[in-house]
Amino acid sequence: MSSFDLTLLEHDNLGGTIYQKLCEALMKGAFKPNDRLKIRDLADRLGTSVTPVRDAILRLVQDQALVLRSPRDIRVPMLTRATYLEIRDIRVNLEGLAAARAAEQATPAQIEALESLLKRNEEAMAASNTALATELNQIFHFTVSEIADMPVLGDILRRLWLQMGPLIADVYGGAGRTMIDHHYPLMDAIRSHDGPAAARAIQADILLASGPILERIDGVCPEPLAV
User: Fold this and answer.
1) Which domains can be identified in the chain, with CATH numbers?
2) Which of 63, 156, 198, 216 is an S-S bond match for 99, by CB 3.0 to 4.6 Å?
3) Neighbour count for residue 46 (Cβ, 10 Å)
4) What is the chain written as a DSSP string?
5) What is the pTM of this model?
């Protein structure tokens, strides 16, 4: 399990705050498939009692981001091939739409922010800092969605990344440039305000990354499993 920032929380809605913290950790790849989450350990790291942590965990189980095998065995699931392919195809369409809209309306400051994220991602990969590179990849994708200014679409993508984040993190370090190369034609399209080209670039990015992801899934679950 990777480390992530869980600072002492003081908030009226403590359970909701913890839920958001854990969501961010899942989306950014702080957890990997089959990682076991221990409520007491999380509560200690958060400086709180177990009750709000348990409430947040149960919400994530409802989101299908965690699996409750027993009260003492809470796991990050490994997606089945069928579930992954469904999520991938939804992402292809929705993130393609978001990229097209972002390209049409991106400001110079927003383009500069994306360029900075891509540069930092390259630096993290060069330094073999896979955890940081994985997090920056997620932030890059979400920043494109934010530039598109489509909050409903953004909420849907957030739920998909709750399930996808740990799996992407699991393969990111070994996938080489597969996970980043198509971010460059995407940036070219956004600079040119070419919506269709931006959609094609991010769709190619998602589809190319599916190769190592499917290899990972098939290596763990060679036979189809019921969802």
Assistant:
1) 14-75 (1.10.10.10), 81-220 (1.20.120.530)
2) 198
3) 21
4) -----------TTHHHHHHHHHHHHHHTTSS-TTPEE-HHHHHHHHTS-HHHHHHHHHHHHHTTSSEEEETTEEEPPPPPHHHHHHHHHHHHHHHHHHHHHHHHH--HHHHHHHHHHHHHHHHHHHTT-HHHHHHHHHHHHHHHHHHHT-HHHHHHHHHHHHHHHHHHHHHHTTSGGGGTTTHHHHHHHHHTT-HHHHHHHHHHHHHHHHHHHHHHHHHH--S----
5) 0.84
Record the tokens describing residue 202, joined without a space.
């991010």
Closest by CA to 91, choosing from 124, 24, 138, is 138
Q: What is the pLDDT along the chain (227 residues), one digit of tens a residue?
A: 555 554 544 544 787 889 999 999 999 888 999 999 999 999 998 888 899 999 999 999 999 999 998 878 999 999 999 999 999 999 999 999 999 999 999 999 999 999 999 999 999 999 999 999 999 999 999 999 999 999 999 999 999 999 999 999 899 888 888 889 999 999 999 999 999 999 999 999 999 999 999 999 998 754 443 33
